[in-house]
Amino acid sequence: MPDPELTWALAGTSAATRPVHATTRDALPALLERLDPDAAGYLRDSGFQAEAGQIALLPGAGGVSAAVLGLGRGDGPPWPYGALPFGLPEGTDWRLGEGCDPAAALLGWMLGAYRFTRHKASRRQPARLVPPDGCPDTQVLAEAILRARDLINLPAADLGPAELADAARGVAERCGAAFEEISGDALTQGFPAVAAVGCGSHRAPRVAVLRWEGAAEGPLIALLGKGVCFDTGGLDLKSPDGMKRMKKDMGGAAIILGLAEALMRLQAPIRLLVAIGAVENAVSPTAMRPLDVLRTRAGLTVEVGNTDAEGRLVLADLLAFAGEQRPRVMIDAATLTGAARVALGPDLPALFTNSETVASALSAAGEACHDPLWRLPLHEGYASWLDSSAADINNIGSRPMAGSVVAALFLRHFVPDGIEWAHLDVYAWNDSARPGRPEGGEAMGLRALYAGLMALLPVWAGP
How much of the chain is helix, strand and coil, in % rounded to 5? Predict the structure, then answer.
């Protein structure tokens, strides 16, 4: 498993550096007044307009002496800074100059410098940044995102259930958490729905559990991730196009592991319970079949209306397991439905929750840190669509509409009364490359969840 130190985009403080300045369109005239006249004249004549992500290299006696980055309207997202690592000369070292937001610049730089190199070497090395002072949290969050991206980008041949569990073990070892891997008969008895989803694959399913006692008196936070390492759709086989990117169907698990690592490394005043359902949904004579009736850890029986609705079965057992510990909140993340993408597109994770307090905190945090979530309703009127004549509940709705809402309503059946819960339905992928967001796996919602949990802590503590 790759375990990068993630410092290849950062320079040491002793490096000989050049400044990179940043400016909005409105602030450009003032910057031109402050720059050396020759540099200002060059910038003017080159047609620099401070568009978001636009880079101008300023000449000096020995070559490039400085650079200027455009921030567009300057509304705060880190993405323009993501253009710098490969927009500046290769092998050069830089420091932040005037107009730069240190935290946004560090985050954007690190995320923009990322390339997945497990099977293909990068064509060039990024320019390096001397990390600004006062941003340790930002660097840890960036590293958590890069680790999650690496996991999502791994081909399914490299990342099966055992390897995903090993990745969870690595997080536990790095952060001093207790680790347990549940497989075999113990999995069949304790997590029967997870076992049923994975029984068609020669790569055996398992559940990885991390426990961290960061603050003895802190609230217990349960984080749960769908880790379907490849999803054929089972016997209700996906189309070739639908199956093409299904190595990313463990994106929810990667996001949860990244979030957990960030919380532990930053010593959040909480206790953590993390559970990852690591499975492969394959086609074989032992695979679950349409209209099979499955047991779940919660005791409910589920009729399999479609074997391609397997992620919610995995989460059902994880939710029941976490609920037994009576956490303050349960948060799950999953690449659960195409319907969420139809509704919101690739960039907006769908947020479902049974708590107005949690909804407000996560939504506000996502907006503030430019990692937006969009709340969709747990509409009670659709609950009956999950009725089954053969079991307590069906795993799909009886109508071909509101698929993400119905999936969330299914999950709600496994959330014990009185426990706050949030569910993120994520895409976990960038279809095309943009500054700070290269094509491939993406840890959508990770920063929003971290900031939202930090905002909830004083609310839970009370006056």
Answer: 35, 20, 40
Residue 409 is encoded by which pair of tokens?
A: 């309503």
Q: Assess whether pLDDT exceeds 80 at residue 428.
A: yes
CA dihedral 348, 413, 317, 280 (to 10 degrees): -50
User: Where do the H-state alpha helices sit in 21-63?
Assistant: 28-34, 37-45
User: Cβ neighbours of residue 14 under 8 Å, at least 6 residues apart?
Assistant: none
- 302-351 pLDDT per residue, tens: 999 999 999 999 999 999 999 999 999 999 999 999 999 999 999 999 99
* 172 and 128 within one domain: no
Same domain for 65 and 94?
Answer: yes
pLDDT averaged over every residue in the chain: 96
Question: What are the pLDDT digits (tens) for 151-175?
Answer: 999 999 999 999 999 999 999 999 9
* Catalytic annotation, residues: 238, 312
Task: Decide if 288 is inside a domain.
Answer: yes
H/E stretch holding 367: helix 356-368
* Sheet with 301-303, side-by-side order of all strands: 293-295, 301-303, 393-394
12 inside domain: no
Check residue 160 and report its DSSP letter: -
Domain boundary among 132, 152, 167: 132
The pTM of this model reads 0.97
How many residues does this entry show for the chain? Answer: 463
Model pLDDT, residue 325: 98
Domain boundaries, position 349: 140-461
Q: Is residue 322 part of a domain?
A: yes
Alpha carbons 349 and 2: distance in angstroms, whole number: 27
At which of 105, 132, 159 does a domain end? Answer: 132
pLDDT at 122: 79
Encoded tokens for 124: 């060039």
State what percent of residues in the chain have pLDDT above 70.
Answer: 98
- Considering the domain architecture, whether residues 80 and 155 belong to the same structural domain is answered as no
